Amino acid sequence: MEKQSLAKLLNENPYPGRGIVIGVSEDGTKAVTAYFIMGRSANSRNRVFVTEGEGIRTEAFDPSKMEDPSLIIYAPVRVLGENTIVTNGDQTDTIYDGLASGLTFEESLRCREFEPDSPNYTPRISGLMTVKDGAFSYSMSILKSDSGRPEVCVRNTFDFGKGIPGEGRFIHTYMGNGSPLPSFEGEPERVDITGDIDAFTKTVWENLNADNKVSLFVRFISIADGTYETRICNKNA
What is the pTM of this model? Predict the structure, then answer.
């Protein structure tokens, strides 16, 4: 798979929906992740990311305008020891509980499916980053309907090992705008990861569609000792 420009992929897709990027910084010292949300409806756009413990959660920017909290209010990022979990829904909690009870990333998700938002059947995308004893590894998962048919859930897990400096993988819920929204297809895209945390955050945020972007979370984790830096961007500020 050819490595692509993350900035270009984002800039040319008006509606990738929700997306996860995981990889390694250019100098090879940091595990990198980004998670963003977008929205087309007023309810989806009425959100912000806020910190919660070592992770984040979504909350209504204006609670008086919240119409339906299901599927849009959840904890996208949680930390369990050396594991950082990043997802686009409440399966964050499913993975957290599964890992805590001794299940693997893949095993933890076997009880979950795509979102019940007919006719889109939005995929559940998830990532697991592990920084332990000076080493880093990561995996990604997508749970999606079978070509838009809700009778079958297609489950794909991708293990990328320790990653490669200056590279990452990008998975998102939709291939683009549409009705119904077309689900992501294929292997997570191979993308470049450039700059420090501020430069990388700027690249992602500025290339997301200005009308549809809502919030962005970025974290750089030191592979040597697990310390981290975090950036959060909210359109509703």
Answer: 0.97
